Amino acid sequence: MPFTFGIVGREKLPDAGWDGVVRWAHADRALGRVPNALSALEITLLPSHRGRGASRMVLDAMRQRAAELGLSHMFAPVRPTLKHLEPFVPMQEYAARTGGDGLPADPWLRVHVRAGGQIVKVAPTSMVVPGTITDWQRWTGLQFTATGTVVVPNALVPVHVSLEQNHVVYIEPNVWVRHVVPV
Q1: Which of 52, 110, 139, 153 has the most CB atoms around it within 10 Å of its CB?
Q2: In terms of Cα–Cα distance, which of 21, 131, 110, 31 is closest to 73?
Q3: Distance CA 86, CA 83 (A)
């Protein structure tokens, strides 16, 4: 997603992460702004293709494409691979974990850093997914029978359920990673 970064009001990446950069890109296009940055939105590999260097190839190709387009910046609102196993751990704490080699403990964050990326910040409200209780029951196969927080399989954080208001809201944090664009 191409967008404009570093202008007034956009000196920092949005706390709204994925959702925020989509809004920025939409506004930029509508206003005719020339983009100077590229954001990944989602990089997904089939399980059979994981662990063989394909994700690094995708990141390299994105950086190269950004350079070809004359863009100065490349970012990614990263959804850490194993965060769903610890939904109650704050993203800031999770993202700061490192292994003995000093690289991030999370495999997907580690790929980004090995590829030259730098963790910039946490986007606490990167993707917001609201829906009715019926919607969420249909999407997840779960029954939501009480107001409060509920752990949903593969979600990075629990969802917020309100039976009284007939809604469930998922507010997913991501981790902003900056990549250097080749000159």
Answers
A1: 110
A2: 21
A3: 5
Token readout for 143 is 């029954």
| Per-residue model confidence as pLDDT tens digits over 82-102 | 999 999 999 999 999 999 999
Residue 117 main-chain phi, psi, to 5 deg: -75, 155
Cα R_g (the chain), whole angstroms:
18
> Rounded to the nearest 10 degrees, how much is the dihedral formed by the CA atoms of 103, 105, 106, 107?
60
| pLDDT of amino acid 45 | 84
Residue 76: how many other CB atoms lie within 10 Å: 27
Cβ neighbourhood burial of 133 (10 Å; 0-12, 13-18, 19+): middle
Supply the pTM of this predicted model.
Answer: 0.93
Helices 107-114/54-68 angle, 10° precision: 50
Report yes or no: 129 and 169 within 8 Å, Cβ to Cβ. yes
Which tens digits make up the pLDDT trace of 27-40? 999 999 999 999 99
Question: How many whole angstroms separate alpha carbon 116 and alpha carbon 97?
Answer: 18
